[in-house]
């Protein structure tokens, strides 16, 4: 089939593209950085453009069998509201209109499971985009409602900078900052006893719907029928398990508690982690994924450890503005 993809160089796109090529499809990739995409995917046609442009930056008509719209801005911070809305909602509107103008019969849309609570501009923009796709007159529409993506089992060493890893890196950074301050003051003033654990506001037995990106990509490529599919983990990770595994990596016990009086270090972390905190109250979703491997302790520990190393190398210790 002749396909156009958005978001090919993103976490999900990097898994979907090779699977579509293996299926025998011919791919055109709409990207902002054409040189990077050509190096990454030499077997694909690369088109420089942008989903935030009304015509996607494509001036000539196209004969396509389908479009896979995988591009999204997943930033949860309020300082990026305009950009997130422009990418997630207006970008999707532009893709739908491109389908209509070019008589593309099938649109595959990568949405999110997190659309019902409207807790931030990301959720609101993705809900509005999904509704726009659903109400369009495109002949065939396939909507994927996806959980929180983490790397594949075999790719833990390339942990992404997604929300989970930013969250853990924030804990690591504020703990390191607190330890450095204690070392500087040691012997100069009387210090209180160091806190033996790190607490985070959340429901301990709540679930966080982490799902391996390769499992999601497999389902997307194998699905050719229209409809709405929940690509969420059928047995999601409990926060108390996640806390134990992260604590083992950081060498500090981590606990989720609904309410507590914060230390200065915990308060600093919560200031930076504010956009992610609502997800620590738990969500329950249906799932169309079968035989989905559990998120294991080994995977979390390995991916978190590599993410922390990468964060220290590239962030300059930045957490709270």
| Helix-strand pattern | EHEHEEHEHEEHEEEHEEHEHH
Total count of helical runs of at least 4 residues? 9
- The CATH architecture classification of the largest domain is 3-Layer(aba) Sandwich
Please estimate the helix content. 25-40%
**What's the domain count?**
2
The third-level CATH topology of the largest domain is Rossmann fold
Name the CATH class of the largest domain: Alpha Beta
Radius of gyration, taken over Cα atoms and rounded to an integer in Å: 21 Å
> Which structural category fits the helices and strands?
alpha/beta
Spatial order of the strands in the main sheet? 3-2-1-4-5-6-11
Number of strands: 13
Mean pLDDT: 90
Largest sheet: 7 strands, parallel
Q: Tell me, briefly, the overall form.
A: elongated
Structure description:
The chain is an alpha/beta fold and 321 residues long. The chain folds into two domains: 145 residues, NAD(P)-binding Rossmann-like Domain (Rossmann fold, 3-Layer(aba) Sandwich), CATH 3.40.50.720; 124 residues, no CATH class. Helix content is 40%, strand content 17%. The protein is built from nine helices and 13 strands. A seven-stranded parallel β-sheet has the order 3-2-1-4-5-6-11, sandwiched between helices. Strands 7-10 form a two-stranded parallel sheet. Helix 7 crosses helix 9. The longest helix is centred in the middle third of the chain and has 23 residues. The N and C termini lie far apart (47 Å). The relative contact order is 0.13. The C terminus is likely disordered.
Tags for this entry?
single chain; 321 residues; alpha/beta; Rossmann fold; 2 domains; seven-stranded parallel sheet; two-stranded parallel ribbon; 13 strands; 40% helix; elongated
């Amino acid at each position: 089939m002749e396909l156009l993809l958005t978001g090919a160089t993103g976490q999900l796109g990097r898994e979907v593209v090779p699977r579509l090529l293996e299926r025998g499809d011919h791919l055109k990739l709409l990207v902002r950085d054409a040189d990077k995409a050509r190096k990454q995917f030499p077997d694909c046609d690369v088109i420089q453009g942008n989903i935030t442009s009304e015509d996607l930056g494509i001036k000539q008509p196209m004969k396509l069998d389908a479009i896979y719209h995988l591009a999204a801005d997943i930033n949860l911070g309020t300082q990026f509201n305009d950009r997130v809305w422009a990418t997630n909602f207006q970008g999707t509107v532009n893709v739908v209109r491109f389908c209509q103008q070019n008589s593309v019969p099938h649109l595959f849309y990568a949405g999110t499971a997190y659309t019902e609570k409207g807790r931030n501009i990301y959720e609101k923009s993705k809900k509005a985009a999904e509704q726009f796709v659903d109400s369009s007159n495109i002949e065939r529409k396939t909507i994927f409602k996806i959980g929180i993506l983490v790397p594949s089992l075999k790719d833990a060493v390339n942990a992404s900078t997604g929300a989970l890893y930013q969250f853990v890196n924030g804990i690591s950074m504020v703990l390191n900052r607190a330890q450095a301050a204690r070392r500087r003051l040691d012997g100069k003033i009387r210090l209180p006893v160091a806190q033996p654990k790190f607490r985070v506001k959340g429901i301990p037995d709540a679930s966080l719907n982490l799902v391996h990106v390769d499992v999601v990509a497999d389902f997307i490529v194998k699905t050719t029928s229209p409809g709405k599919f929940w690509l969420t983990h059928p047995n999601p990770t409990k926060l108390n398990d996640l806390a134990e595994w992260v604590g083992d990596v950081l060498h500090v016990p981590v606990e989720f508690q609904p309410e507590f009086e914060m230390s200065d270090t915990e308060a600093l972390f919560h200031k930076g982690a504010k956009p992610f905190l609502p997800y620590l109250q738990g969500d329950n979703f249906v799932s169309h994924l079968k035989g989905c491997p559990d998120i294991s302790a080994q995977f979390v520990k390995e991916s978190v450890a590599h993410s922390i190393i990468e964060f220290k190398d590239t962030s300059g210790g930045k957490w709270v503005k």
